[in-house]
Amino acid sequence: MNILVTGAAGFLGRRLIEALLLRGSLTDRTGQSRPIEQIVAFDMVELTGINDPRVKVVCGDIANAHVLERLIDANTDSIFHLAAVVSSQAEADFELGMRINFSATQHMLERVRQLGTCPKWVMTSSVAVFGGQLPEQVPDNQVWAPQSSYGTQKAMNDLLLADYSRRAFVDGRSLRMPTIVVRPGKPNLAASSFASGIIREPLNGQTSVCPVPLDTRLWLMSPAQAIRNLIHGHELGSEQLTEGRVINMPGLSITVERMIDALRQTAGAQVAERIRLEPNQAIERIVGSWPGAFCAAYSRDLGFTADERFTDVIEQFIHEYQPG
Amino acid sequence: MNILVTGAAGFLGRRLIEALLLRGSLTDRTGQSRPIEQIVAFDMVELTGINDPRVKVVCGDIANAHVLERLIDANTDSIFHLAAVVSSQAEADFELGMRINFSATQHMLERVRQLGTCPKWVMTSSVAVFGGQLPEQVPDNQVWAPQSSYGTQKAMNDLLLADYSRRAFVDGRSLRMPTIVVRPGKPNLAASSFASGIIREPLNGQTSVCPVPLDTRLWLMSPAQAIRNLIHGHELGSEQLTEGRVINMPGLSITVERMIDALRQTAGAQVAERIRLEPNQAIERIVGSWPGAFCAAYSRDLGFTADERFTDVIEQFIHEYQPG
Ligand SMILES: NC(=O)c1ccc[n+]([C@@H]2O[C@H](COP(=O)([O-])OP(=O)(O)OC[C@H]3O[C@@H](n4cnc5c(N)ncnc54)[C@H](O)[C@@H]3O)[C@@H](O)[C@H]2O)c1
Ligand SMILES: NC(=O)c1ccc[n+]([C@@H]2O[C@H](COP(=O)([O-])OP(=O)(O)OC[C@H]3O[C@@H](n4cnc5c(N)ncnc54)[C@H](O)[C@@H]3O)[C@@H](O)[C@H]2O)c1
């Protein structure tokens, strides 16, 4: 199998590549398991620290049509398309968001259509496609009503991927991801950045700001679970996708208050006290428009899975980033 | 008011222009009623037969960026964007559909954004954005699941228009139109073409083919009602659009069988007998994926209206095209 991963140097991209290398094989579009021969790890930033002869690191701008031509060819069996700019960035810079989050996807799909090879394609959509009046638990047939440019761009990708798949230009699967926590590293421009920050920073001995009310309900998934689901999404046969190519992932529904409780339980009261409440209306507006719970019946039927306890999610992070 | 109408030579475009000329004024974005000074009637085909000094006929391809620059300028107060290729055409020629039905809209919106004038914008979406498992009456919060490229392109336009409106680049309203009947003239490539054909051809003394089962339920609107709603959609103040810019229109829900009954009642059994049942799977597949009834609660709240009796719709057609 020849695999392309875009956004390879990102949070999910790097972990996906590590998981794929460990796994060693994937199911091709004919349903056959085949060894992974090459993973093209594409990103604007160079992916470093993975030393495996199967990985070919390529740097470039995904919004550049010439880059795409060299990146995707008739030998490309599968594409994991993860490159994107985060929600707050797409909101702050409309042109950038449209170019990276939507047009690049459109051009990649066009490249694939022109090749005529119908590769497998897994990408990550977002719950930011939802908004407006929402029931407490969002059903799979809930209308899309993005309240951000990021959500709009993801929804447009979903529509395109579904139509390209219907026409057999590509064998697409768009996984509508919950917010992934705990994300390591620094806070980023995503409106949801605090959801990791309020766990990560206190564990690192730093104070952290919570910009939303304590009763804000979030829809979460751990990094390990996300990678498992990305690979599961790839492995499904297209004949199983009876309700379409855009799949609301299962997740863990939890309030910010309970997240902090779990942190207290796992790491102690002193750690949990490092969280400061500091309302931020801009972030509240975006995050508050995202639903806090989904039925996700279709995805559960398809065998996608969710984290069960938030304390496990915290322990996953501690285990991985604070060994000892 | 300086108005641009795209698709001006089409079925709805021509009628809209006639109605606007008769009306003489429109409400601008500040809420003030102003006389219509100019209507730019843009289409690939030349609009003929309307002789009014306020109408400026312009021919060109809407997918051409240079054309757009001359078409839309800082003086453009309102845009009625109706140009499109029909569903079967967009299905048969993927590139054509994407170019005219989606990319042209995107480029027009970009032109408007760059001008920074935030004109009013009314466009026509379609029930073809829906598909898959549908309740008997489709609620306003029903997920979009287009089963055709035409529906996909319309849904992408809706998403874009909503985001451009949210960012105040444009003051948009997308009206999700039922199938408009009775359409005069020849059958066209729209999958829904038969819905007019089974009324129009028999009235003209010709036989007509019905390609779908008699119990197929359609969601219809008469041309006069469609024009009324397009203008109503323009006249609404943006502060009224509390549930968003994409509005499922009210309509008349009726089975093909009842349509034929209405024809029999209005024009006699002999006329109704000119309809031949001839199943066509391709058309059945597309039309069958469209919902036959909508709640359309939001649009009714906003004051959009529907036809009440199909016999009236037939009489509207007879009155207009067969006077005497
Ligand atoms: N992390 C989450 O909570 C979450 C939730 C829902 C969806 N997603 C989606 O999952 C995907 C991956 O998320 P992530 O958390 O790993 O994001 P990330 O920001 O860590 O990684 C994205 C990567 O894309 C790269 N990139 C950006 N612009 C590029 C360009 N023009 N050309 C090439 N590469 C470019 C960045 O350099 C970065 O390495 C994204 O599409 C994101 O929208 C993430
Ligand atoms: N009639 C219906 O039942 C119905 C239902 C739902 C939505 N709509 C939508 O309403 C709009 C108008 O519908 P209509 O029935 O009047 O369609 P129509 O086909 O009669 O008119 C469309 C017009 O667009 C023009 N056009 C096509 N490509 C063009 C291009 N590249 N450049 C410039 N002009 C171009 C055509 O010449 C035509 O005159 C369309 O957007 C259609 O999708 C119609």
TrEMBL record, chains A, B:
Residues 3-211 form the NAD-dependent epimerase/dehydratase domain. InterPro entries: DenD (IPR050005), Epimerase_deHydtase (IPR001509), NAD(P)-bd_dom_sf (IPR036291). Keywords: Carbohydrate metabolism, NADP. Gene3D superfamilies: NAD(P)-binding Rossmann-like Domain, UDP-galactose 4-epimerase, domain 1. One of its GO terms (molecular function) is oxidoreductase activity. SUPFAM superfamilies: NAD(P)-binding Rossmann-fold domains (SSF51735). PANTHER family: ADP-L-GLYCERO-D-MANNO-HEPTOSE-6-EPIMERASE (PTHR43103:SF3), NUCLEOSIDE-DIPHOSPHATE-SUGAR EPIMERASE (PTHR43103). NCBIfam families: ErythonDh (NF043036). This is NAD-dependent epimerase/dehydratase family protein. It comes from Pseudomonas proteolytica. The lineage of its organism: Bacteria, Pseudomonadati, Pseudomonadota, Gammaproteobacteria, Pseudomonadales.
